[in-house]
Amino acid sequence: MGRARTDVNMDMALELLGNGFTLKETAEQCGTNPMTLKSRIEELNKEESALLAYDKRHFLDLIRTKERLIAHMTEDKMLAAPLSSLAQAYGIVAKFDQLVQGRPTEIVGMMGYLMQIEKMEREGKIVDGEIVDGESEEVSEESIDQ
Fold first, then answer.
1. Assigned domain for 134 exists
2. Number of structural domains, the chain?
3. Residue 14, SS3 per DSSP
4. Does residue 92 belong to any structural domain of this protein?
5. Host H or E run for residue 126
6. What is the arithmetic mean of pLDDT over 38-47?
7. Which 8-state DSSP code applies to residue 4?
8. Residue 118: which domain range?
9. pLDDT by residue (tens digit) across 53-103?
10. In degrees rounded to 5, what are phi and psi of residue 133?
């Protein structure tokens, strides 16, 4: 049976190391020994590598899915499809492009504000420019300017 695992405040340790403290000084501040701290840092590095590998696989999955969608969009299918379906497919492909490029997919600023108003009108929450259900969100000028 091995020793009990020592708890180390890794947030504090990483901050100290980032501020130029040595491994020994950081271990003393965290109440542990340098070998334990080094071991915890190596564990974090392994976890980070696994997360980065997942991100790469996820990125490739997005590209493959987009390619598959596009490959199945034949001229005949596009002519036979309702316009709403084509618009939806275009939106999906555009969203894939944004994700692959690392750009945010949510719409903010004036366009987001106008889309929210349009959505509320479609849902019947706004009639003739008036909110009918009595519930509304405060919209500041700052959120519109974003």
1. yes
2. 2
3. helix
4. no
5. strand 126-127
6. 85
7. P
8. 107-146
9. 666 777 777 778 778 877 888 889 888 988 888 888 888 777 777 776 766
10. -95, 0
